[in-house]
Amino acid sequence: MTEPTGDQLVEALAALANPLRLRIVATLAGGRDYVSNLARVIGVSRPLLHMHLQRLEAAGLVVGSLELSEDGKAMKYFEVADFDLRLTASTLARAARTLSDPAKGPAPKEQS
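RE: above sequence
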């Protein structure tokens, strides 16, 4: 994976900033799993898990694929995407230069 743009880095960090999403990625680091089993392992409902998986998938951190089981049921499997985020001051500086709108500055809640 190439070095992320500023926007990609913000999206990935925002996705990982949630403790449940961090647990999902950590669990999937052990191998791919289907949604129902992953929900049982983590201890959350499938709808809540789906919401978090969609956020992780949009950030490029997990990948989902639909497969048919032997009995014909559709099963959604997820696995960790091939990513490597290294946060250093120089990486952040390069990413900041590629932000889509750097003139906006920090969000209002970040200014204080």
